[in-house]
Amino acid sequence: MSPNEIFVVVFIMALVMVIGGSAVGLLLSPKSKNIQKGEQYESGIPTRGTSWMQFKVGYYLIAILFLMFDVEAVLLFPWAVLVKDLGVEALYAVSFFLVVLILGLAYAWRKGGLEWK
Q: In whole angstroms, what is the distance from residue 55 CA to residue 45 CA?
């Protein structure tokens, strides 16, 4: 089998498993119609007022910075595994990647994005 045929078989099997699992869950799961089931649940306390409220921008900035450094760790792992085989060019590429990342961290730090107020 060629790689393309293997890909198609794996893709079709993934679709069959996802759709089949969802269908079995829908068929076998207990069904009850209850008004309380459709309500929002937050630690057992009924909600008051509207759910549309403003959050501080700091929460989003911290989340974005966390994702940025999380992606960095994910991208550095394959490089660290193959560093001996890749050569000097890979060292230059990862050095450039880290410099850009460190400059982004310095910019966020200087602008006060890491301060929790």
A: 20
Q: What is the pLDDT of residues 73-95, one digit of tens each?
A: 888 888 888 888 888 888 898 89
On whether the CB atoms of residues 57 and 117 are closer than 8 A, the answer is: no
Closest to 65 (Cα-Cα) out of 115, 5, 11, 31:
115
- Which residue is it, tokens 């982004």? 104
Total-model pTM: 0.47
b/e string for 94-104 if b means 16 or more Cβ within 10 A? beeeeeebeee
Q: CA quadruple 22, 25, 27, 30: dihedral positive or negative? A: negative
Helix (H/G/I), strand (E/B), else coil: 74:
helix
CB 114 within 8 A of CB 108: yes
Both structure tokens of 47 = 């909600």
